[in-house]
Amino acid sequence: MHTGGIIVIGNEILSGKTRDENSPYLAGELRNLGVDVRKISVIPDDLDLISNEVRQFSKAYDYVFTTCGVGPTHDDLTMDGIAMAFGRKTHRHPELESTLRQYYSQNLVDGNLRMADIPGGARLIGGTGRWFPTIAVENVYIFPGVPEILRRKFERIKEMFRDAPFHLREIYLQADEGQIADLLHRVLAEFPELLLGSYPYFDNPVYSIKLTLESKDAAYVEEAHAMLLAELRKIDLIPIEL
Amino acid sequence: MHTGGIIVIGNEILSGKTRDENSPYLAGELRNLGVDVRKISVIPDDLDLISNEVRQFSKAYDYVFTTCGVGPTHDDLTMDGIAMAFGRKTHRHPELESTLRQYYSQNLVDGNLRMADIPGGARLIGGTGRWFPTIAVENVYIFPGVPEILRRKFERIKEMFRDAPFHLREIYLQADEGQIADLLHRVLAEFPELLLGSYPYFDNPVYSIKLTLESKDAAYVEEAHAMLLAELRKIDLIPIEL
Hints:
homodimer
């Protein structure tokens, strides 16, 4: 199983001005691809903080995804921070420079070319053109903050992350979590590798608990699901069909 | 200036099943209160990971806020993780136990009482009753994951975090960020303490850049704002009135 980590770089998220649309999107997509996302961090536009976080994530997880901070202005420090994390420098990449020169044509100003400055040894993946490719350094994949562009870029390369899928079963109940705490422990004692979640809902008229059972082993999920249903029957709890 | 950190504990966020509504809410509220949120982490329901993250955040920031993981089931490990972070144990709190006994009355099962198990030396703040108080250990404030309940609890205690406010000015432009990168550097050279953000928009018909100028010193923001407008005029860029 491959693991992933997501780093969101941006004061605008931390100050509540902008809502982070990217980490929920990436988390959902990566889960569907079979990748186990282990951590999401939101950090400020600060060179040392970016560098430290990237270094830690890169060691801890198989894949690291960063979003935001890749434009031409003073607060776009992602490329410098990632270069620093790996003890490298940024340099102007000729292919990106020529793409930018073509795009801006006679309107080009020096500032635009900053977007061609990427860490040494970076790879360009997923095709060419104005918004593509995606830039990767070691196991770190660098995405912009604009959600539409991030999605377009991720769609282009996502198959490279595909892994064995997670199998999911859900059970909805009208009950109090306290009633089922013990039986969930019994199921986990039998199925220690099961990913079992129990989520209360306080304003849903139909159900008050959602249980999720997951594993990469489909048969394991089915056996655990059967045991859980049997345990629920013992205390007269019938799952709600949605 | 006081700093803050937010820790979201929950596999359901990392797997993309549930969207985290709480950290955007807390980040926005804390900013309005004048608190500088420096980091948001989303981590799994894992005792060691919770304990480590809480210990690090507690040292690094003035206030730490946790959400999720405070129910009665096996995946509710927040209280144990926070106790562990401070080298304490959880114990059954008599006041919380009696609130729970009253609430559940004859429907009470043992599982319900797990919600009265809190770290030794924890403080109960913000009043009494079923959903209140908020439990705090050292500088860590513990909130549930259900957004409505979190909000009600936070509203009750938020004034204790109030600090000098941030002053904010915004400028909207129809331009390319590359055009203004240099003049933003000049403004920052004059106003090094300014919190200056530049955010591109690719699908807004009215403006393509939002600039944000912030400081706790209102006069400083106004002076920086005046200089920035003068710099924009030099390259014939007129802010857009919204």
